[in-house]
Specification:
Blueprint: H1 2-6, H2 8-16, H3 18-25, H4 33-45, E1 50-53, H5 62-81, E2 86-89
Parallel strand pairs: 1-2
Length: about 90
């Protein structure tokens, strides 16, 4: 699955195709942290805890790994700042 997800044609189909976006929307809270945190607040209000993932974390270069780590740290900071009932999932 990771190999397929890295192929531009597959990624483009899922992200640009309305049917693909509908399917993904059930599992992807947002493409940006602000969107994910808004969904987190909605779910928390319903008594649901959230696990946030950074999709695309499968990297091959040190710079990409550093950027992904920074994104996870920013996510943890937002969870704490907003006192969200959430955690992160690192693969």
């Amino acid at each position: 699955m990771l190999t397929l997800a890295q192929q531009r044609s597959i990624k483009s189909f899922v992200t640009n195709n309305p049917a693909g976006r509908r399917v993904a929307r059930r599992f992807v809270a947002g493409e940006q942290l602000d969107e994910a945190m808004a969904v987190t607040r909605q779910l928390n209000a319903r008594g649901i805890s959230v696990s946030l993932d950074h999709l695309g974390e499968n990297v091959n270069a040190e710079a990409e790994a550093s950027a992904t780590a920074a994104d996870y740290i920013a996510t943890l900071d937002r969870i704490q700042a907003e006192r969200a009932e959430a955690n992160i999932s690192i693969k």
